[in-house]
Amino acid sequence: MAGWAWFLEAFIGFESYRPAPPNTKCMLCDLHLHTTKSDGVWAPERLLEEVQARGLECFSITDHDCMDAYPVPADLRERCIPGLEVDSHHVGHTVHILAYGIADPGCELMCRLRTQRENRVERMHAMILRLQRLRIEITMADVQAQVTGASSLGRPHLARALVAKGLVQTVQEAFDRYIADEGDGFVALERLTSGEIIAMIHRCGGVAVIAHPLRLRDPAHVHELYELGADGVEATHPTADFAAQAMLRKFALSRGLLLTGGTDFHYPVAERGLGVELERADIEALRCAIERRARVGS
Ligand SMILES: [Zn+2]
Ligand SMILES: [Zn+2]
């Protein structure tokens, strides 16, 4: 939280900062869930069983860069807000944007993400070729052997393959010697900026929410993403303590932004089940925003 103190002053004002009042109009929801369709450990069916068992009133499966877990079964559809978590970059740093309300699998955003996935394979071939030219004996099959679930192909897989073949001792060494940004084996991956992704989400009838803002490299990025058109912030997330949640809530209310939250579930954690308490009014506002965007887009 220390680094966020100036954020309060710059964008909210210490004077106006108060913890959120205790409220009684909450519902158990989870708008940030991963499955084996990206890097979660549970298949969609298993996750949906848990959604039922926990009695979540509203939920969204937000796999990375894909909506392969959709559609959900008819009996859960009313409680579900379709979503995904999109990887983007902002001034050189990774930013995750949650996109809610995307209904068409053939829309510009989903097509673009599919192309990006194909580009990752091309890029991996190019990196392997560079390493082979350095007389490092590594193949695509070695890298593929490191891919678990449906996670998209990236440098960590290549690094682990180099370790598995005994060509380096550690993943860190693989990066340091070969595949870090300036390394001899590195090939850049073309990614969209956060501004481009937000605009694309809007064009596809969706609502763009800044995922886990506390993970942003620089607190000022929250404000910059707002200026780029983000519609909301994920104020409730395991990375945000009570004070941080209150601060983000205050920021959102002062800018007319939506508020969302979830557990960012990837695998079961003993002390925490699915679901977070969210205000009913915030969920209604999110649903209204999605409806409005869909009307404008159509
Ligand atoms: Zn994320
Ligand atoms: Zn996530």
- What is the succession of H and E elements? HEHEEEHHHHHEHEHEEH
Output the CATH homologous superfamily of the largest domain: Metal-dependent hydrolases
Low-confidence stretches: 14-19
Rounded average pLDDT: 90
Share in helix: 25-40%
CATH architecture of the largest domain: Alpha-Beta Barrel
Radius of gyration over all CA atoms, rounded = 20 Å
CATH fold-type name of the largest domain: TIM Barrel
Largest sheet: 5 strands, mixed
What is the number of domains?
2
Describe the strand arrangement of the main beta sheet, using strand numbers. Answer: 3-4-5-6-7
Termini distance?
42 Å
Describe the protein.
By secondary structure, the protein is α/β, with parallel strands linked by helices. The protein folds into 2 domains: 2-17 and 26-103 and 205-297, TIM Barrel (Alpha-Beta Barrel); 112-179, DNA polymerase, domain 1, CATH 1.10.150.650. The protein is 40% helix and 15% strand. The chain is built from 10 helices and 8 strands. It has helices spanning 5-12, 44-54, 108-133, 140-144, 155-164, 171-179, 194-203, 220-227, 242-255, 280-297, and strands at residues 26-33, 58-61, 83-90, 93-100, 207-210, 232-236, 258-261, 276-279. The chain has a 5-stranded mixed sheet with strand order 3-4-5-6-7. A 3-stranded mixed sheet has the order 2-1-8. Strand 3 and strand 4 (93-100) form a beta hairpin. The longest helix has 26 residues, at 108-133. Mean pLDDT is 90; it is low at 14-19. The structure holds zinc ion (ZN) (2 copies). One zinc ion is lined by residues 32, 34, 85, 264.
